[in-house]
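Take one record.
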Amino acid sequence: MSDPDASVVVPARDEGRRLERTLESLAAQTFDGRLEVIVVASGARTVAVARARSIVDQVVIDDRQEGPGPARNRGSSAADGEVLLFTDADTVVPPSWVRRHCRHYATPDVVGVGGPLRPLEDGLRHRVLFRLLSDWWYRACWPVGFVQQPGCNCSVRRTAFEAVDGFDDSLGFLEDTDLSLRLRREGTLVYDHACPVDTSNRRQERVGYMRLCWIYLVGYLEYVLPGRSPTREYF
């Protein structure tokens, strides 16, 4: 069997029920090439769900549970695709998701693609705030060089990913932003505003939008200050 054209890596920590929806959406992809799906799983229920789904090619047991960056790196090490796509186990991707990401790599200097997030759970407040914080914010930041591929809706060209040594394992927070900024030296990153994914807003419900914005602001400042590193952890 030939190597896959694209590999999707899904880190999943104690996400059995939610992971089922994610895998169903990956099984519905309209991608014409060969697709590989790798789940980096921890928790008995999560592992069982991943192993039971025919769409999953490999289940990597995440017994270390060190966070999203290390989990994505472990999945990428097991992947064979020329394009690596990342989403989360509480996220549902549209049928055209893989195809839309991969089409950008027909342009040789493109090394990464990101897209907006929408709330998986309904509600006007969530729709408005997600549009503001997970779409318009990106649209404003990317043209000035502050590129941020969200971890649950991003892809990279394998050669560029390997050239920058993947995600920084030491970061438990903003590891996706850090990867995006390091990828800039390898080529062009594209923001595809017409390629959204639906992701859980449970973090926003638990923490609150205002507090979450403050946490991210502090994280950004810690990231850019010499000798500092974002200290929050979210998985």
